[in-house]
From TrEMBL:
This is DUF350 domain-containing protein. It is a multi-pass membrane protein. It comes from Massilia aerilata. Keywords: Cell membrane, Membrane, Transmembrane, Transmembrane helix. It is found in: Cell membrane. Its main location: membrane. InterPro entries: DUF350.
Length: 128
């Protein structure tokens, strides 16, 4: 396959995966992040932003460290599962997540975002 087509295939797949993650993640959470962000809720933006960055770090690592398209797609799917599991576990341990995010508690949103980003970076490192 010509290099430009390989690049485009990986780029479009990576973007599609980030969009898919966004859709799945926002459906899993018990609050409407998009609405909250539109209303100026910084806590929701911090939490969602951290999860997107964490997932994207793993996507980037899988692009760099895999030999073929199917390995890349497999690691990306694994990253999606890991990020969602981390969110579910973190919010179960920090039982007041819904109330705190909806109340625009930026410290709590930052904590959730940092947890997601941290796990994403660790997950990305595990691929290498």
């Amino acid at each position: 396959m010509p290099a430009i087509l390989n690049y485009l295939l990986h780029l479009f797949t990576a973007v599609a995966l980030v969009l898919a993650f966004f859709v799945v993640y926002t459906r899993v959470t018990p609050y409407d992040e998009v609405l909250l962000v539109r209303q100026g809720n910084a806590a929701a933006a911090l939490s969602l932003g951290g999860s997107l960055l964490g997932f994207s770090a793993t996507i980037a690592s899988s692009l760099v460290h895999t030999m073929d398209y199917y390995q890349f797609a497999g690691w990306a799917f694994g990253a999606l599962v890991v990020q969602l599991l981390v969110y579910v576990i973190a919010t179960r341990l920090l039982r007041m997540a819904k109330d705190q995010i909806e109340a625009n508690n930026c410290a709590f949103g930052g904590l959730l975002g940092a947890i997601s980003l941290s796990i994403g970076i660790v997950n990305a490192g595990c691929i290498s």
